[in-house]
Write the structure tokens for this entry.
Amino acid sequence: MLKIPKSLAHQVVFVDTSAFVTLIDPSGPEHKFSKEIFWELAKQRWRLITTNFVIADTYNWIIAEMGLELARTWLKVAHQLNVERITLEDEVLAAEILQGKPIEGSICYTIAVNIAVMQRLGIEQVFSFEQVYKDYGFSLYKDLPGLLFSVKVAN
């Protein structure tokens, strides 16, 4: 299981399905922005974390919207990512989140599990286009440009 030292927590960002989808889909309105954010994260050597549920969600979206060949390519790329596996405790917390006080709009199971994982790992930033993360106290993608240009990562 991944352990993130508190001193490095500001250099870690969780990436959800919506960020990957906007990066992969060149016809989407957020594609250019996504590319810029991913590029800056890589350039500054931020550690990108995702879950196996996000890998599956992204694969399912790609195969439905863009075809099998690109979905297969995604799986090759996904194997190179920092993937945190979901634990039973994450799923229990996700169920509590889903059964708790409703927040505006709906929340899917994968997002609830992602929130549980981010809480467990102490991750505060999330690259996502889903407002619900902010409702749970995480810094959203739109906050990343300020973070990216103000935090200097040691080489």
